[in-house]
């Protein structure tokens, strides 16, 4: 299985793999001549607008739709009663004590979060549909709103789903080793409550669904901006009661997902249902406001983390209690996300005992679910922050402390105490490379010198490992394999049908590169098709940094099958052994190279079938369903250097360095792009982004005016480098890279800012590190240190009360070497 | 009450009777049939809908079609010269300045305005220049490289114009 991917299977040096090939996707995108779902227009197409609840929790007493129906241009108006025959929005999770409330596509009787849809308008154009939505009158009787995670679990809290008698959605414990003993033996125990705030994924293309139903053919075609066309087809066929063979899902261009389109939404059930009902194609396009309200959110956990340490710096154990906000309903994978958090609490360290206890909680908010990293950024944040807090407690440099606890390269495959087996790594190499690239020692010297002149310089380090290439099927709700079908057409052009569903990751290019090398042809002769369930064999989709490591491997394995078949035919035609046939430079050659046949001639021979060996099936097509034997575990070290202005609380990001190892690299340009984007999103969480529901369940940061999506000038130029440790999990040695930057950068930034302020006793500040919050932490620390009196703070402007947002320690630590 | 408008889009006159409330972006997408201009927020904050109106970048989701009556609009579809890409498009392709591509038309049109008025911007001027346009995929670094790439190409190709400034 494990084979160096430096050489393709013909033994020749790779030609296209490893090259910075310009993307095949781009010409159509940079000219604006491609099509996202909202760009599609069908004859007779109608437009849908949804009426959404302005309350977070309320009884629906009455809905009056007469005025809306009477508006010229309105074709139909439906409410929850009408759509009661549509199956519920699905949750794919199964766990012993998991409570799954029925999640109707349109609210019935009660609304449970702001923006829950209560009626659907279908009209000739979007303007008329929007006008009609204004005319729908709904009588609501507001109910007590549950937004605070801890209060939600109290016996006096209002109940969101009364049948469950509490707001507890599930509990889950993951443990390994003797955690009690670890904490008993500890010389030091550090603990910290950390809030991982709620985020909006914000793909630049909002969601969109277009559906057309042809009753004669019994053919439902759904165009949707999704990451999972096949899973969507299965689920929607169940929701609509149609045979799965009658449903075709097409994903046109998809304008980003970041996990938010790894889901099955109510709209993906309603819109096809409407198309059946009115007998014309119907399109729904999400507004950005709806995107904030009704597309899944990410993160939103309260974490109480404890680390048990020996005084020599060895970690004895880690314990964490996680309260995870589910929102009002479960979307497809909502309860899974905090379990992924639990799984990765070993980080990249040798930790002999771990216990993670999770409580999932219902609140009157939009559901949380997978957002770039999906549970792993939360784990890495907990681990990397408590590592810094632990280092400070011990008086050790955070790098020295990390080096003491990293497993050595010879210890791989390395199995954590909670049972994951990390495939391959050289953590020390990425760390050392990053230290050099960042000029770590010089940064520390500057920090020391700066302290004398009142400058607050901080250096943040995060050494991360992530779990990618999701994943072995036994560990995933819907199967974790991927499909690939390769077909060489009679003219010699190659079609790859992949079950992966790229939406920005560039796999039309990377897959073409790897196939071109295998077949000895040009990548321009390889056409990668994805996102059409009628064309592509069943697949799982693109998420969890699995596109290349699982989908790419399926393509690679299918190509190997096809090469074996081609070798058999070439051997027959050339009079040699099949094992002696090599591929390269557009030819198939017998050993020694004297006899050969062009790629095109061989292909044509397979189709004309005039001279084929006995038992040889004509045609050239092969399919492989790749089941990964394990996850992959990319890793790396990121370092940030910041200066904090103690007067204003502003953080200046001076330098950002990332050294990542995602195994073998197929297209370095694309890998760098993935890391840049990841860093930006992770930094967005650390510094600026936060979804805030107030006590009434109103989303007060639900627009681009209030929710800060970072802009170009927020960032310094990122400096990247990499090490290459091939994965033994797949034959290409690739690991995955889509989420690495996000996972690494969030704790890196917070570590940097807390490091800058550690000398005045700031121990931890909850994200996002907006100036107001940093300033408060500084004032609090200085006030406490100077005279023990509370400083005067500016009024808390925004944050919903939830746990403690800022903790400072009065003992200042100046023991840094 | 509908109003007749004539808007010159990428060199061709587009005539239609439109509702006064029709947004320019919807005129371009629905009437002119040019869907390269995207709607990302409807509030002029994301920049996905950026087009040139009489040569200056505007966010077409907050311009009414009637306001563009009698004027010239350039969209991303109007940049390439037949098969020959515009240098900004080339820059985005060569430097991997896009991933999902949704913000890209707006980003390209905004960069067009920037380079028209600042032919040789520094990296920080590029970052400031595109700060009305959001991208969620790239972290902007390759977009900055793309604009830098385009600026070099454009100043090489148009020395006469640069000299005449």
Model regions low in confidence, pLDDT < 50 over at least 5 residues of chain A: 1-11, 785-817
How many beta-strand segments of chain B?
5
**What's the rounded overall pLDDT mean of chain A?**
94
Structural class of chain A: alpha+beta
Integer count of domains of chain A: 3
Strand content of chain A: 15-25%
Largest sheet descriptor of chain B: 5 strands, mixed
Shape of chain A: globular
Seen as an oligomer or otherwise, the chain set is heterodimer
Specify the CATH homologous superfamily of the largest domain in chain A. Answer: Aldehyde oxidase/xanthine dehydrogenase, molybdopterin binding domain
The share of residues in helices of chain B is: 25-40%
User: What class would the helix/strand composition of chain B place it in?
Assistant: alpha+beta
The averaged pLDDT of chain B comes out at 95
Largest sheet of chain A: 7 strands, mixed
| Rg of chain A (CA only) | 28 Å
Strand order of the largest sheet of chain B: 2-1-5-3-4
Secondary structure: elements and pairs:
The complex is a heterodimer of chains A (817) and B (165).
Chain A (H helix, E strand, L loop, with lengths): L25 H5 L15 E7 L5 E7 L1 H5 L3 E6 L30 E2 L5 E7 L2 H10 L1 E6 L6 H4 L15 E9 L2 H7 L2 E12 L8 E7 L4 E6 L4 H12 L6 E4 L15 H13 L3 E4 L2 H7 L3 E12 L5 E13 L8 H8 L10 E9 L13 H19 L3 H8 L8 E2 L5 E2 L4 H12 L1 H13 L3 E10 L16 E7 L5 E5 L8 H13 L6 E4 L17 H28 L7 E3 L2 E3 L6 E3 H10 L12 E6 L8 E10 L6 E11 L6 H20 L30 E5 L17 H18 L4 E4 L5 H16 L19 E3 L9
Chain B lengths: L2 E7 L2 E7 L5 H8 L18 E4 L2 E4 L12 E3 L12 H8 L9 H14 L5 H7 L11 H17 L1 H6 L1
Parallel strand pairs in B: 1-5
Antiparallel strand pairs in B: 1-2, 3-4, 3-5
Helix pairs in contact in B: 2-5
């Amino acid at each position: 299985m494990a084979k160096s991917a430096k050489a393709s299977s013909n033994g020749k040096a790779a030609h296209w793999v490893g090259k910075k090939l310009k993307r095949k996707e781009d010409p159509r995108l940079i000219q604006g001549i491609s099509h996202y779902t909202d760009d599609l227009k069908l004859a007779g197409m109608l437009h849908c607008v949804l009426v959404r609840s302005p309350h977070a929790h309320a009884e629906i007493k009455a809905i009056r739709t007469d005025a809306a129906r009477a508006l010229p241009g309105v074709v139909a108006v439906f409410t929850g009663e009408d759509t009661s025959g549509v199956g519920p929005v699905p949750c794919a999770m199964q766990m012993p004590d998991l409570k799954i409330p029925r999640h109707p596509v349109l609210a019935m009787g009660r609304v449970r979060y702001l923006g829950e849809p209560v009626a659907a308008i279908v009209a000739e154009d979007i303007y008329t549909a929007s006008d009609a939505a204004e005319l729908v009158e709904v009588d609501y009787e507001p109910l007590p709103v549950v937004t605070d995670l801890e209060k939600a679990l109290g016996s006096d809290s209002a109940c969101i789903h009364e049948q469950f008698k509490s707001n507890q959605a599930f509990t889950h414990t993951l443990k390994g080793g003797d955690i009690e003993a670890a904490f008993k033996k500890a010389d030091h125990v550090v603990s910290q409550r950390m809030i991982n705030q709620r985020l909006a994924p914000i793909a630049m293309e909002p969601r969109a669904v277009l559906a057309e139903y042809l009753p004669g053919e019994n053919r439902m075609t759904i165009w949707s901006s999704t990451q999972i066309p096949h899973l969507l087809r299965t689920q929607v066929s169940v929701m609509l009661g149609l045979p799965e063979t009658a449903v075709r899902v097409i994903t046109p261009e998809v304008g980003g997902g970041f996990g938010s389109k790894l889901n099955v939404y109510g709209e993906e059930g309603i819109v096809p249902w409407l198309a059946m009902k009115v007998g014309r194609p119907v399109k729904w396009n999400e507004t950005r406001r709806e995107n904030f309200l009704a597309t899944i959110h990410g993160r939103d956990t309260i974490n109480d983390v404890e680390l048990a340490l020996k005084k020599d710096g060895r970690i004895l154990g880690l314990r964490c209690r996680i309260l995870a906000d589910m929102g009002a309903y479960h979307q497809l994978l909502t309860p899974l996300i905090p379990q992924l958090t639990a799984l990765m609490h070993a980080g990249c360290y040798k930790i002999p005992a771990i216990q993670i206890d999770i409580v999932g909680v219902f609140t009157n908010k939009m559901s949380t679910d997978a957002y770039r990293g999906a549970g792993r950024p939360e784990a890495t944040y907990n681990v990397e922050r408590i590592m810094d807090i632990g280092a400070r407690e011990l008086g050790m440099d955070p790098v020295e402390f990390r080096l003491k606890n990293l497993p050595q390269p010879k210890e791989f495959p390395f199995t954590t105490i909670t049972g994951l087996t990390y495939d391959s790594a050289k953590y020390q190499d990425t760390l050392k490379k990053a230290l050099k690239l960042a000029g770590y020692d010089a940064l520390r010297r500057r920090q020391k010198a700066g302290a004398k002149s009142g400058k607050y310089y901080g250096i943040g380090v995060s050494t991360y490992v992530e779990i990618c290439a999701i994943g072995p099927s036994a560990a995933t709700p819907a199967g974790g394999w991927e499909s690939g079908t390769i077909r060489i057409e009679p003219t010699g052009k190659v079609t790859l049908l992949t079950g992966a569903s790229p939406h920005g990751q560039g796999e039309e290019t990377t897959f073409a590169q790897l196939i071109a090398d295998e077949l000895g042809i040009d990548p321009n002769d390889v056409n990668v098709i994805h996102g059409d369930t009628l064309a592509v064999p069943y697949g799982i989709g693109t998420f969890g940094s699995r596109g290349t490591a699982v989908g790419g491997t399926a393509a690679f394995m299918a190509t190997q099958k096809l090469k074996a078949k081609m070798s058999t035919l070439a051997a027959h035609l050339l009079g040699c052994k099949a094992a002696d046939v090599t591929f390269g430079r557009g030819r198939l050659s017998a050993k020694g190279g004297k006899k050969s046949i062009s790629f095109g001639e061989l292909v044509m021979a397979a189709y004309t079938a005039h001279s084929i060996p006995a038992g040889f099936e004509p045609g050239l097509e092969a399919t492989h369903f790749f089941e990964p034997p394990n996850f992959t575990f990319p890793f790396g070290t990121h370092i940030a250097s910041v200066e904090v202005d103690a007067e204003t609380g502003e953080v200046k990001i001076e330098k950002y360095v990332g050294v990542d190892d995602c195994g073998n690299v197929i297209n370095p340009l694309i890998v760098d792009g993935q890391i840049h984007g990841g860093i930006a999103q992770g930094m967005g969480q650390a510094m600026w982004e936060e979804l805030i529901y107030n006590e009434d369940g109103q989303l007060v940061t639900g627009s681009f005016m209030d929710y800060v999506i970072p802009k170009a000038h927020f960032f310094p130029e990122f400096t990247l480098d990499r090490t290459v440790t091939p994965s033994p999990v797949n034959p290409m040695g690739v690991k995955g890279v889509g989420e690495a930057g996000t996972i690494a950068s969030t704790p890196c930034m917070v570590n940097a800012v807390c490091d800058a302020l550690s000398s005045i006793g700031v121990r931890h500040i909850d994200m996002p590190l907006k100036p107001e919050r940093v300033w408060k932490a500084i004032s609090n620390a200085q006030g406490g240190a100077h005279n023990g009196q509370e400083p005067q703070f500016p009024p808390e402007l925004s944050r919903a009360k939830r746990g403690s947002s800022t903790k400072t320690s009065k003992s200042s630590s100046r023991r840094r070497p | 009450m509908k109003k007749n408008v004539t808007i010159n889009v990428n060199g061709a006159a587009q005539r239609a009777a439109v509702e006064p409330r029709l947004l320019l972006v919807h005129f371009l997408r629905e009437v002119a049939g040019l869907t390269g201009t995207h709607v990302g927020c409807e509030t002029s904050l994301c920049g996905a809908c950026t087009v040139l109106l009489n040569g200056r970048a505007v966010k077409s989701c907050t311009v009414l079609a009637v306001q563009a009556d009698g004027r010239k609009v350039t969209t991303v579809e109007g940049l390439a010269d037949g098969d020959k890409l515009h240098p900004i498009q080339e820059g985005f392709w060569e430097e991997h300045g896009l991933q999902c591509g949704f913000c890209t038309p707006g980003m390209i049109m905004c960069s067009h305005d920037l380079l028209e008025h600042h032919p040789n911007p520094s990296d920080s001027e590029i970052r400031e220049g595109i700060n009305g346009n959001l991208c969620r995929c790239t972290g902007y670094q390759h977009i900055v490289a793309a604009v830098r790439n385009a600026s070099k190409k454009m100043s090489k190709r148009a020395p006469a114009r640069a000299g005449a400034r």
